[in-house]
Amino acid sequence: MITLRHHVLTIVAVFLALAAGIVLGGGPLSDVGATVATSRSDTDAPPAEDRSGTDYTESFVSTLGPSVVADRLAERSVALVTVPGADEQVVTALAGQVEAAGGTVSARYDLTEDIVDPGQKSLVDTLGSQLLTQQADGDVAPDASTYDRAGQLLGLAIATKEPEGQEVNGKARAVLDAVTGAGLVAGPHEVPQRSPLVLVVLGTDAGDEGSDAILAGLAQGLGAQALGVVVAGTTQDGRSGQLTRFRADPATAGVATLDGVDTVAGRIATTLLLQRSLSTQGGAFGAAGADGPVPLG
Asked: Domain locations in the chain?
């Protein structure tokens, strides 16, 4: 039997797709705009941008969103990881969506320029080797690559595969102290719990293969320690940015992705994808996601 929630989610999916179409110029207003433009003379002043359709869609999704995400993450926590250049307003809004869904953000961890800089690989590799021997023997794959190992170590400190989360033990605290002390991650000194879910918010696209490999390795490593990992970016990221290249890497298939977090619709979809990641890993969602604009079910 089709439930009310399924109806609501279907309506939201339709409006998410409509929002993506309007933003990308592929929605129902695109043909009208082209017809009007061709009917004007070259000397006419360009018409003011008509945002009524986009504004209405965003308003609709904002109004309906709280009822859709309510209790989706009840009694669950999320570790928030940001890549250098992540938009602060977007990060704050995503954290708010987690709370609106009944969840908590256990802590925020900001990756620094050093950990994503290919020129600092020697530092990352040396520290990773030391921590593997001193703190993480048996918890991190000994044959992992430099950045996969770094991601696993970070995951050991901030994440868990237990759905209810776990307390931070001495080993996790030692690893986190080491990576923050080395200037690779900026995070709080005291963290109450390791989380089953990790949300990675993309930042500035470095636009080179070295940074792509670093991001893929870190995310893959986090995925080895967490119950679910979601990598989220803007609409542009999913269209032709770093998230597009991330999705094309077969090694990242087990990490869920979503583009469009610069929109209300995308942030709501991110919350639904976090819930999905508690039981199902992977999937590409959002304005350019191969699996649809939003995970349903």
From this structure: 4-64, 71-286
